[in-house]
Amino acid sequence: MTLGGLALAVGILVDDATVEIENINRNLEEGKEVEQAILDGAAQIAVPAFVSTLSICIVFVPMFFLGGVARYLFVPLAEAVVFAMLASYFLSRTVVPTMAKYLLQAHDPAQVNQRQESRNPLVRAQIAFERRFEQLRNFYFSLLQLAIAHSTVFLILFFVFTIGSFALLYPWLGQDFFPSVDAGQFKFHLRAQTGTRIEETAALCDEVDDAIRREIPKGELVSIIDNIGIPYSGINLSYTSTGVAGASDADITVALTPKHHPTDLYVQRLRAKLAVEFPGDTFYALPVDMVTQILNFGLPAPIDIQVVGNDADANRDWVNKLLKEVSYVPGTADLHIQQPSNNPHFFVDVDRSKAQDIGFTQRDVAGSMLVATSGTFQTSPSFWLNPQNGVSYNVVAQSPQYTLQSLNDLENIPITSSTAAATTVPSPYVSVGSSGLTPASAGAAPPPRAGVQPIQILGNVASLVRGTEPATISHYNIAPAIDIYGNVVNSDLRSVSDKITQIVDRHRKELPRGSQVIIRGQVQTMNSSFIGLVSGLFFSILLVYLLIVVNFQSWLDPFMIVAALPAALCGIVWMLFITGTHISVPALTGSIMTMGVATANSILVISFAREQLEINVGDARAAALSAGYTRFRPVLMTALAMIIGMVPMSLGLGDGGEQNAPLGRAVIGGLLFATVATLFFVPTLFGVIHGRLERRRKRAAATGAIDLED
What is the distance between the alpha carbons of residues 39 and 97, in angstroms, rounded to a whole number? Predict the structure, then answer.
């Protein structure tokens, strides 16, 4: 964001010195000596430039009062712009005039005539440019005369166009928190039928990989990486945001070459194709770029409809009903319930009476099953120290997995007890003495002997019952939670979230008692950030207005300056609409910057008009025309410097350029309209208001003179 702030301010940094030099040259053309022209030029521009610099800096002050993620995103940007602007003002008031003393020469009419006859192509190009520019300025002067002559009609049309354009186009823009980025890779989460073994999931991933290779040209594909099952370490699992629930889950990451077709195009094609080829499985796209992952705050999607409550079964029924309706919202994709509830399991129903008659307890049955299916490491950890390398290794006793392939294998798990007393009930026996395990002979049970334990199989003391259970359980503030996650495709986050909110509100009364539903994800962060930035935008306009009031010692002239700012907002809306760009945090940041630059240009015009009004006493229209004609060049230079500096950013070039493209487009559109308002609207309004004030003063003076005569 610091580099983004420098890119945002680069146009103004160049413009400060440019305006200074232009004003010095204007004084030189009036026939002044070099030092006097430098002193007069610097003095004339010092106060307006200082107020303009403060106006640009002060619009970023509200950013320091933002909270949450917005603060960490925009405070570095604001600091970069403010410090750069202050340094630029200091250098343009000190270093630039000093260098001008040694590099500029006094205006010589004879030298001007020689330049007219020069054959140097650069000199002739400059002369041609100056000629064209003077023609443009004269054309502007005639248009400004026309606007001032028909000031009432012009001002009414200006306000109608500005307010009408904003009101009509704004609802069509759409709102996103941050623009999406083509990261050159994408990731799909595959969820097979819950309970699928990991080797079956791996085979399914191979088929999915083949389908992806058939869709993406070989020349654009770099690699496909499958990450299957739950991470081995619990630490890795805590940092996983993809929603892995078991061995039936897999993340498929596809990397593309630098020269590839749009990644979103492949994602949308594969989303439709995989759903047809693998109808029993679930696929949803995951964020891969760093910014989106951060803005999601660890969630796998920007939309999260979360139901929190203790009645998990009733909540799941309500969520299933809601999911069916939300899936019809235009612009939604990959809607799914994050916590699957159909994980197969076997419930071991132990007949405790029968087990007790044989000499077993519930603990004996559970312990024997744990050792057979999971190993002895959890109950009786043991280690072997290798004397050669000094490394301790885990020693685990466990039944081989290939011996547990069916229900019959599970029922044949041996149940033993080291604490059970010998019994005369007929059962097989084994000796556990020093000679090892020796099976007893078949037939009638021999009499019990010391050191002999009873043995049984699981099927004799328990029955296996099939069932389902949640594959994963999530909690939010201790209470159980169920989440519906979804992505936004071919739409904007605001419109989709508003429609989802309407559906949720319509079904909120059907929620189980004690449960609540909250829409989380990027929507929450976007709402808080937008409220902070929009509030900061209007607060910054108020601060700029108060600053200009202090400088001009007037409430009326600052109002004329601020009245031109709606034109900047209108230009921003038009540019975003034409380019198909949604309103986002970068676009709002560019809007704030545009307010400062537009105010700075209007200050240059109004300050010069006030000076001319003192010279041309009582002729406000002449002062407005003179201000517009004289400040035409510096205003255009300020706007063009900023616009040209924003062009590369607005094109979204380079890796991740899509993030800052709305910022550049907002600045360009806002400055285009704000410059027109500064050159036409501000002088016209100045002429109308001050003209009426002068006429009122003359009438008051005439009335006072008549009273004195009477």
Answer: 8
Mean pLDDT calculated for residue range 630-636: 84
Instruction: Using CB atoms within 10 Å of the CB of residue 122, give its burial: 0 to 12 exposed, 13 to 18 middle, 19+ buried.
Output: exposed
Q: Does residue 424 surpass a pLDDT of 80?
A: no
Give the residue among 378, 350, 377, 381 at the shortest CA–CA distance from 366.
Answer: 350
Which residue has tokens 């005569």? 709
Amino acid sitting at position 384: W
Q: Are the C-beta atoms of 80 and 9 separated by less than 8 Å?
A: yes
Grade residue 692 by pLDDT with cuts at 50, 70 and 90.
confident
Q: Mean pLDDT in the chain?
A: 81
pLDDT in tens, 342-388: 888 888 899 888 888 888 888 888 888 888 888 877 777 888 888 88
List the alpha helices (DSSP H) in 580-681.
585-615, 620-630, 632-650, 661-676
d(CA 321, CA 298) in angstroms, rounded, equals: 26
Q: What is the CA radius of gyration of the chain?
A: 39
Task: Indicate whether 220 pLDDT > 80.
Answer: yes
pTM here is 0.75
Class of residue 54 by CB neighbours under 10 A (exposed 0-12, middle 13-18, buried 19+): buried
Give the pLDDT score at 180. Answer: 80
User: Which residues are paired to 462 by β-bridges?
Assistant: 350
d(CA 245, CA 325): 25
CA distance 129 to 115: 13
Which DSSP state fits 590?
A: H
Q: For the chain, what percent of residues have pLDDT higher than 90?
A: 5
Q: Give the rounded distance of the alpha carbon of 689 from its chain centre.
A: 44
Average pLDDT over residues 596-615: 81
Question: What separation, in Å, do the N-terminal and C-terminal C-alpha atoms of the chain show?
Answer: 72
- Measure the CA–CA gap between 151 and 628, rounded to whole angstroms: 15
CA 673 – CA 516 distance, rounded (Å) = 47
pLDDT of 433: 39
Report DSSP state, residue 681. Answer: I
**Which residues share a beta bridge with 284?**
189
Q: How far is CA 468 from CA 183, 345, 366, in A?
A: 39, 6, 20
Question: Using CA atoms, how far apart are residues 506 and 603, in angstroms rounded to an integer?
Answer: 52
Q: Which amino acid is at 275?
A: A
For 256, the 3-state DSSP assignment is strand
